[in-house]
Amino acid sequence: MELAIVSSTELKGSSEVVTYYLEKLLKGFPVDDKIINYHLRERGWRINDNFRIYTIANASGKELDESQAEFCLFRINKLQKDVISFTYEGYIILITRPTDEEQNKAYQEKLKDLLAKLGLHCGCSQTFNRFNDLKYYFIQSKAALFEGEKHNPEKNLWNFSDFYFQHLLSSLDNSTSLKSLCHPGVLRLKEHDNKYGTDFVRCLQIYIFHGCNIAQTAKDLFMHRNTLKYRLGKIAEIINMNVQELSENERMQLWFSCLISGIL
């Protein structure tokens, strides 16, 4: 039935129709694949191509007004023709179809320069290939924007993949206390690091990352194997666990706890 809306006089022009369906997808409403395919084919795109979504906001934190958004869109659209662009919830939204990572990097470099001139910040999703999942990658792009401004404010464009764990921890912290998820042994280890200037939490995290392999951990830490064995012995005393005989569940909990402890 929705196919009839394509020719409806209530939506003037194909660009308004496309924006209508894009906004539906961003809000999480389902849109038939046939409708998406119809409009993507108009651009020479396909529903299972590779896509990225960019969310652009004022560097000042103020919402973009209509005239500013219109001017910025005009400038941004000159960078590359093969881009869907529109405004949504006070943001400028871009959807690109990178053919490979080199093309994506080249576009981002041009976009960074323009963002600096326009006083804008931008978050970018991971590459995805199901256009119907647009909502989830819009969430990624907004998360990249938020986490990037918070953790790496000297830049103006941030990719979600660089802030995955920060976003994961922020999401967990919003639903529960992160400290409640942290292994008590790792909390004791962090207290020891703060009190004595040791680096035991990082040592344990890297040790678990390397599958509890002494040689690989020592190499990564630029440390003699015997020195590492001594430190692991001290760590075992503090957390009251045998770090050489950890179960898979214990490894996962300890590693994640080390990660959490870094932001407590």
Q: What would you note in describing this structure?
A:
The protein has twelve helices and five strands. It is an alpha+beta fold and 264 residues long. It folds into two domains: 2-173, Reverse transcriptase/Diguanylate cyclase domain (Alpha-Beta Plaits); 178-261, Arc Repressor Mutant, subunit A. Strand 4 (120-124), helix 5 (134-151) and strand 5 (157-159) form a beta-alpha-beta unit. The longest helix is centred in the middle third of the chain and has 18 residues, at 101-118. The radius of gyration is 24 Å and the shape is elongated. It starts with 13 loop residues before the first helix and ends with a helix.
Sheet bearing the most strands, described? 5 strands, mixed
Specify the CATH class of the largest domain.
Alpha Beta
What value does the average pLDDT take?
91
Structural class: alpha+beta
List the secondary-structure elements in sequence, H or E.
Answer: HHEHEEHEHEHHHHHHH
Principal-axes geometry comes out as elongated
Strand order of the largest sheet: 2-3-1-4-5
CATH homolog superfamily of the largest domain: Reverse transcriptase/Diguanylate cyclase domain
Low-confidence stretches: 1-13
Helix content: 55-70%
Distance between the termini: 52 Å
Radius of gyration: 24 Å
Domain count: the total is: 2
At CATH's second level, what is the architecture of the largest domain? 2-Layer Sandwich
Give me the CATH fold name of the largest domain.
Alpha-Beta Plaits
What is the count of helical runs? 12
Strand percentage lies at 5-15%
Overall strand count:
5
